[in-house]
């Protein structure tokens, strides 16, 4: 099992960051190794990722969603996989601290390799850095 919590400050308002984060179909724009993301309904997400050169599909269930504040999800089967929480906290009028917490329960050999100390944390921080770069490059304040 791995517990990871990482945070990053993004120079956009929290609501803008939250709104972008919940546009799941756009995750491949900033999430490395994500091949495709499908959203069959408001509470389910199907991820297709590249895990060490092999495609892997898994389903998640959104367990909590507070607009502008937080979103949480877990693996749909509930027993193995992962749980995640992303929170958005204002730091000034036009900046936001995004905190990403992830707990993984690896199953196979490839997942257990990814569960080694530092690997999952580095991956999570990479996602936040990519998100920050994407947001700061594409967001424009309303007129």
TrEMBL record:
Q: What is this protein called?
A: SRPBCC family protein
Under Gene3D superfamilies, the record lists:
3.30.530.20
Give every Coenzyme Q-binding protein COQ10 START domain span: 10-115
Query: Which superkingdom is the protein from?
Result: Bacteria
Mention any Pfam family matching this sequence: Polyketide_cyc
InterPro entries per the record? COQ10_START, ORF3, START-like_dom_sf
């Amino acid at each position: 099992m791995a517990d990871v919590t990482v945070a990053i400050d993004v120079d956009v308002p929290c609501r803008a960051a939250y709104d972008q984060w919940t546009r799941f179909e756009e995750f491949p724009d900033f999430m490395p190794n994500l091949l495709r993301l499908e959203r069959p309904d408001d509470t389910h997400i199907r991820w297709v990722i590249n895990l060490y050169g092999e495609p892997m599909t898994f389903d998640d269930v959104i367990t909590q969603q507070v607009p502008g504040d937080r979103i949480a999800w877990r693996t749909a089967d509930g027993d193995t996989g992962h749980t995640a929480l992303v929170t958005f906290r204002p730091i000034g009028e036009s900046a936001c601290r995004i905190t990403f917490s992830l707990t993984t329960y690896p199953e196979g050999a490839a997942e257990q390799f990814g569960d080694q100390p530092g690997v999952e944390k580095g991956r999570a921080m990479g996602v936040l850095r990519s998100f920050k770069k994407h947001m700061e490059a594409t967001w424009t304040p309303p007129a």
